[in-house]
Amino acid sequence: VGRTEVVRSSLHPVFSKVFTVDYYFEEVQRLRFEVYDTHGPSGFSCQEDDFLGGMECTLGQIVAQKKVTRPLLLKFGRNAGKSSITVIAEDISGNNGYVELSFRARKLDDKDLFSKSDPFLELYRVNDDQGLQLVYRTEVVKNNLNPVWEAFKVSLSSLCSCEETRPLKCLVWDYDSRGKHDFIGEFSTTFEEMQKAFEEGQAQWDCVNPKYKQKRRSYKNSGVVVLADLKFHRVYSFLDYIMGGCQIHFTVAIDFTASNGDPRNSCSLHYINPYQPNEYLKALVSVGEICQDYDSDKRFSALGFGARIPPKYEVSHDFAINFNPEDDECEGIQGVVEAYQNCLPRVQLYGPTNVAPIISKVARVAAAEESTGEASQYYILLILTDGVVTDMADTREAIVRASRLPMSIIIVGVGNADFTDMQVLDGDDGVLRSPRGEPALRDIVQFVPFRELKNQRTARGAPGIHHAASPVAANLCDPARHAQHTRIPCGAGQVRAGRGPEAGGGVLQPQRPAPERPGRPCRRGQPRLHTVKTWRASGGQ
Fold it and tell me: What ranges does the record give for the region Disordered, renumbered to this chain (predicted)?
């Protein structure tokens, strides 16, 4: 990824080098940090320098905790004395949002002989190399020297690379059907200047033709361009919510119906092979290890359905697999794995495959959180099942009700069954509706057969079972999408930059995302989440 500068003669170096790393919530991004004592005057050399220790963690852990301090370890896991390393993460996606702008002009120069000009406006961003990048081109207003152009929306990244002081340039042209447009004039500004001028009610600029200005002393302008409206809409990302204090609560529900086969039989999906995890364990670990980095207490609710359970061996569709109804949580993913393995010999696989009770149970907890008005908790339910649910109507009803809550559901189909009928629960092909016709407020379900994922590679070519969860996890935890439909108070530190009502604290009023305009002549910016990492070490050399 990178290497810091050398800090000379210090046991407590603070490195100024900053690294920018792409952050993907849906993947386990493992990082290793190594500290060396360098001897050579020319800098770093692995063969000549002394290894002082290393530390491994995931990027998700750093993002969730904001600052991670760990001891430096030598080879074979030995502590490097009292040496430690601190890694700090900061979201630099900055002003995730979009700007709504509306321009008009007055008294533009008339470039046509028998009619008035047909003006349109182009907005450019000035890049670091002083090149111009087209941001937006308005429509043409025919035969009008006082045009009013339609409002348009553009991402802040596309407008000014999230740098409010970056120069912008506006050009006004008289449209020509042959493509030889006549230049009317131009002006330069910045997004920061736009905001200030608009707030002061003086958002207008002389539209100047440099050639006319050079030739005529009396020349003032070729018209005036007015910023009629400016709105900045802050769009909060998943990372904003995590770094703002939103806590993720993870619940797993496991199918214990008889269709899985006798766990004592090696053909069973629940068969415990000491040398190879079964499909349930693979799916559980691949998704769960991603989620656990964002759960502060690392305690996960683990439930089962479709089995006869002790002591009366009555069928239950909502039981704690640790058999403690008062506390169904397990310590980390490994705790869930152990509870699952201990549960199998004690239950009788039965049926049917009813999942509505568990969805409703998690939804009740999420509803209780929603009623507090804080909305600082988000709930993820992972359902592992080997077949199509039998209570489809009740499940649809439960999902539609849950779609209004801070909650997402992952359903992973385990085994080789035909899961075609399960696709109806995933709203990708249309809005899910309850049996009564009520539509889901948002798509909260992600369904995928595990067999389609376990052998896939990520876009960056990384193989392995952990990456099988990437397409699922990319959609599973969506407080930001939930916020587009509800009112979620901002957590501390969520808003760092930007002007306008959305830049302050208080209640987040989500805005609609900017729509794409047909025939738009330029690409919209697609800001990505990045993480800035800085670190310091102590006790080293």
Answer: 497-541
H/E stretch holding 368 reads helix 356-371
Q: Can you tell me whether residue 262 is helix, strand or coil?
A: coil
Q: In what order do the strands lie in the sheet with 530-538?
A: 19-22, 530-538, 79-91, 67-73, 50-58, 30-37
Q: Could you give the C-alpha distances from 491 to 157, 245, 425, 521, 537, in angstroms and in order?
A: 23, 6, 32, 38, 30
Q: Is 163 helix (H, G, I), strand (E, B) or coil?
A: coil
Record the pTM.
0.58
Q: d(Cα 205, Cα 189) in Å, to the nearest integer?
A: 9
- Which architecture, in CATH terms, is 97-234? Sandwich (2.60)
285-306 residue pLDDT tens: 888 887 777 777 889 999 999 9
Phi, psi of 158 (to 5 degrees): -70, -35
Rg of the chain, C-alpha, whole Å? 29
pLDDT value, residue 484:
53
Confidence of residue 518 (pLDDT cuts 50, 70, 90): very low
Edge-to-edge strand order for the sheet containing 307-309?
Answer: 314-316, 307-309, 348-349
% residues pLDDT > 90 (the chain): 46
At residue 308 the predicted structure's pLDDT band, cuts being 50, 70 and 90, is very high
Percent of the chain with pLDDT over 70: 78
Fill in the DSSP letter of residue 260: G
pLDDT of 182 > 90? The answer is yes
CATH number attached to the domain at 239-483? 3.40.50.410
> Measured on CA atoms in the order 197, 199, 202, 206, is the torsion positive or negative?
positive
Cα torsion angle, 100, 106, 111, 114, sign: positive
Computed from CA positions of residues 192, 195, 201, 204, in that sequence, does the dihedral angle turn out positive or negative? Answer: positive
The SS3 of residue 190 is: strand
Cα dist from 46 to 34, 35, 37, 54, whole Å: 11, 11, 10, 14
Q: For 74-117, how does the pLDDT look when each residue is reduced to its tens digit (9 = 90+)?
A: 988 888 889 999 998 876 665 567 899 999 999 999 988 888 99
- What ranges do the domains of the chain cover? 19-94, 97-234, 239-483
Contact between 53 and 35 (Cβ < 8 Å)? yes
